[in-house]
């Protein structure tokens, strides 16, 4: 697969040649591959569906997506969280047609079957005269997902084969926990800002996912924001942090076992001073200064990490470099993806700080914000490239820093199997596609991958 001028029919389109760093463009555009992804990747993965702060009280619910599957997430009378397929078992109608609310039961608007918020079928019109009292209600409840709660985040899978959530997450748990704990290191320290931002983009879901796995290379795309001084720090130029102090390194951490990846700042020692990145919002700055020292105290050695963002395979990105958000890509078609965004604020912050953060987040991110528009344009345009017959003569190129990584400080508690390197590289993307290829039944090149890194 190496080299220019490869012939398209020589490629198995399911095969991502991680060892060569080259990827066939058809995986972004072909309907058949998309259908297989829904079955073999989404159908067998743990998927984020929401946050416990969206349903604080018994009876609360909200609707979400587990890949292409619509779900209702409920908190029942026993305080248990259920993730139910939002598809009536009678004839397929969604049983819940509101975004959120509080209800003990859901009555299907088509023929009136009624389901408790635990999923049980409790109401059956014409039960005795129509079904002779013989329809087994136990069998016809809403389909229930396996559910895992992780520091406030809610995850689900409809697969019986998928390993436990903890096993799927593996060493990435450290990173995700660090994100879900919020700025002061409280166990369950975040809450959602009311309302989930949703919009549609005309590109394949993997463009967003791979970008968030660790594309520090695309700096140039967001240059305008830096130039006009709208970046987080209010400073102009690329360096938000004081690079001269050299007290931390920015690391790419990729976990090949699960396909996850994160970007972190790792301080050389615990207890380092707060470095302001909220110059433009003094009241927020003060809150974060406090939170920084509380967190250092609480976490000790592990407080050396500052989590900047990452991806939980396959379709969830979190971003925490001052803006706590989770992005979910909902695949609708090879070239159509819904983007869902949860914005978070620290639970413990005063209302004025929460308000300031909310305004900042909307100005900065989302389809009307300053940064996200750049990427919407990038990915929709890359999609056109993936659909071009002529362009498919050449694969996509993911060879940046392949074979000459700048290996970082070994930190065993980052995870034993983790690939850790420093600076701009495409290791995390290669790891992402390696995992994708494995799940799609492609040839596994684990040894080759390792050699290439
Ligand atoms: Fe729901 Fe018939 S489709 S009751
Ligand atoms: Fe970007």
TrEMBL record:
One of its GO terms (molecular function) is dioxygenase activity. It holds the Pfam family Ring_hydroxyl_A. Residues 46-156 form the Rieske domain. The keyword Oxidoreductase applies. Gene3D superfamilies: Naphthalene 1,2-dioxygenase Alpha Subunit, Chain A, domain 1 (3.90.380.10), Rieske [2Fe-2S] iron-sulphur domain (2.102.10.10). Keywords: 2Fe-2S, Dioxygenase, Iron, Iron-sulfur, Metal-binding, NAD, Oxidoreductase. Belongs to the bacterial ring-hydroxylating dioxygenase alpha subunit family. This is Aromatic ring-hydroxylating dioxygenase subunit alpha. The lineage of its organism: Bacteria, Pseudomonadati, Pseudomonadota, Alphaproteobacteria, Sphingomonadales.
């Amino acid at each position: 697969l190496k080299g220019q001028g490869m012939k398209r029919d020589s490629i198995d389109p399911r095969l991502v040649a991680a060892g060569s760093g080259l990827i066939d463009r058809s995986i972004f555009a072909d309907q058949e591959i998309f259908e297989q992804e829904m079955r073999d990747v989404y159908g067998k993965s743990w998927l984020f569906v929401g946050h416990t702060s969206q349903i604080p009280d018994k009876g609360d619910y909200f609707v979400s997506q587990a890949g292409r599957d619509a779900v209702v997430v409920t908190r029942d009378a026993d305080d248990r969280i259920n993730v139910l397929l939002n598809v009536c078992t009678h004839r397929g109608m969604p049983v819940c047609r509101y975004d959120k609310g509080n209800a003990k039961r859901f009555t299907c608007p088509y023929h009136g079957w009624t389901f408790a918020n635990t999923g049980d079928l409790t109401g059956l019109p014409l039960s005795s005269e129509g079904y002779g009292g013989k329809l087994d209600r136990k069998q016809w409840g809403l389909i229930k997902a396996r559910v895992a709660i992780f520091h406030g985040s809610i995850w689900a899978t409809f697969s019986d084969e998928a390993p436990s959530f903890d096993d799927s997450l593996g060493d990435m748990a450290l990173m995700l926990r660090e994100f879900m704990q919020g700025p002061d290191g409280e166990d369950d320290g975040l809450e959602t800002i009311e309302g989930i931002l949703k919009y549609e983009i005309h590109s394949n879901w993997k463009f967003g996912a791979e970008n968030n796995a660790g594309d520090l290379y695309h700096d140039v795309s967001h240059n305008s924001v830096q130039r006009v001084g709208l970046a987080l720090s209010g400073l102009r130029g690329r360096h938000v942090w004081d690079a001269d102090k050299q007290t931390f390194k920015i690391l790419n951490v990729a976990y090949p076992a699960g396909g996850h990846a994160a970007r972190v700042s790792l301080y050389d020692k615990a207890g380092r001073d707060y470095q302001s990145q909220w110059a433009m919002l003094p009241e927020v700055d003060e809150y974060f200064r406090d939170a920084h020292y509380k967190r250092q105290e609480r976490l000790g050695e592990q407080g050396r990490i500052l989590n900047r963002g990452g991806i939980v395979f396959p379709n969830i990105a979190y971003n925490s470099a001052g803006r706590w958000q989770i992005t979910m890509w909902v695949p609708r078609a090879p070239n159509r993806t819904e983007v869902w965004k949860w914005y978070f604020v620290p639970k413990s912050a005063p209302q004025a700080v929460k308000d300031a953060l909310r305004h900042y987040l909307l100005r900065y991110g989302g389809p009307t914000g300053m940064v996200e528009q750049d990427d919407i344009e990038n990915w929709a345009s890359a999609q056109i490239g993936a659909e071009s017959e002529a362009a498919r003569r050449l694969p996509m190129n993911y060879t940046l820093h392949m074979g000459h990584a700048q290996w970082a400080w070994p930190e065993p508690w980052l995870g034993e199997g983790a690939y850790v390197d420093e600076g701009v590289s495409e290791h995390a993307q290669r790891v992402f596609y390696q995992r994708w290829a494995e799940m799609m039944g492609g040839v596994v090149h684990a040894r080759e991958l390792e050699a290439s890194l």
